[in-house]
Amino acid sequence: MSQESEQRVVVVTGAGGGIGKAIALEMAADGARVVVNDLGTSVSGDGSDQSAAQAVVDEIKASGGDAVANTDSVADYRGATNIIATAMDTFGRLDAVVNNAGILRDRMFHKMDPDEWKAVIDVHLHGTFNVSRAAAPVFREQKSGAYVHMTSTSGLVGNRGQANYSAAKLGIAALSKSIALDMALFNVRSNCISPFAWSRMIGAIPTDTPEQQARVDKLKSMTPDKIAVMAVYLASQRAADVSGQIFAVRGNEIFLMSQSRPLRSMHRGEGWSPDSIASHAIPAFKNDFYDLEVSGEVFSWDPV
């Protein structure tokens, strides 16, 4: 247990299982008091089992920690305010928020139903905004706080059949940067983790081909506890000078991910036409084009 986090209070959304549960347990092991939020839904967001959050709370308490369950939905702003209120009413303070809640409704883009699009955006992107915004007045008033958001290489790099999830996760990366910029005045930090870990959500990845099965077999070796230690670090004062960054965690590897910046430029004094773009600009840029790769092709080596 670290002395600096002994009295800290952390909200972890989607903490009834998988990565979220691992983060909640690691936060408690590090001395923080934890609000364990979870609806207990399926991977697709259907159904509800409100005992999931309480089971994690019971596990934390059995290990000598302190935690409270919350079963509000992050997709609803009033629910998000209740999550933050649970921290304040129970523990009297809030030091960090980990936005982990998420669902999957994978479908190839040309077959994706608008409801499948909206459901994933509501939980991931809107949910991250809702909980972060609800916590902002507390952080602003006390002039301290940390946000840790879960993005994904599905958004940062790309994956097939996940237009809704990819859009939400890339949006979260941009939202995190905006929060970092806007809240820096109040000594509030915001960072992202792009996790590689075996969980219920990754368990929904198709295994119809040998290549897909091989990818899943690799992912199974990457357990959620590898992600949790990074979340604990970013939520603590150990990371006091770290904000606006995106980290990927893959087994025992940690990556600092790039953020969009100009690669090449061309100037044409007389301006451009479609023909001159085709004959001059694009040939000059083409060596720096990004391939149509999915994240599994970019991170192609075995996890270590």
How would you sum up this structure, described in words?
The chain has 304 residues and is of the alpha/beta class. It has one domain (3-259): 3-Layer(aba) Sandwich (Rossmann fold), CATH 3.40.50. Helices cover 44% and strands 13% of the residues. An eight-stranded mixed sheet has the order 3-2-1-4-5-6-7-8, with helices on both faces. Helix 1 (18-29) packs across helix 8 (225-235). It starts with 8 loop residues before the first strand and ends in a 6-residue tail after the last helix.
Total number of helices: 10
Task: Give the terminus-to-terminus CA distance.
Answer: 27 Å
CATH topology: Rossmann fold
Could you say which overall geometry the principal axes of the C-alpha atoms support?
A: globular
Radius of gyration computed on alpha carbons: 20 Å
| Structural category | alpha/beta
- The helix/strand order is EHEHEHEHEHHEHHEEHH
Give the overall average pLDDT. 91
Biggest sheet details: 8 strands, mixed
Low-pLDDT regions? none
Number of domains: 1
CATH architecture: 3-Layer(aba) Sandwich
In short:
The chain is α/β, with parallel strands linked by helices and 304 residues long. 44% of the residues lie in helices and 13% in strands.
What attributes does this structure have?
single chain, 304 residues, Rossmann fold, 10 helices, globular
Secondary structure: elements and pairs:
Layout: E1 9-12, H1 18-29, E2 33-37, H2 51-62, E3 67-70, H3 77-91, E4 96-99, H4 114-142, E5 145-150, H5 153-158, H6 163-183, E6 188-196, H7 210-220, H8 225-235, E7 246-250, E8 253-256, H9 274-285, H10 295-298
Parallel strand pairs: 1-2, 1-4, 2-3, 4-5, 5-6, 6-7
Antiparallel strand pairs: 7-8
Helix pairs in contact: 1-8, 3-4, 4-6
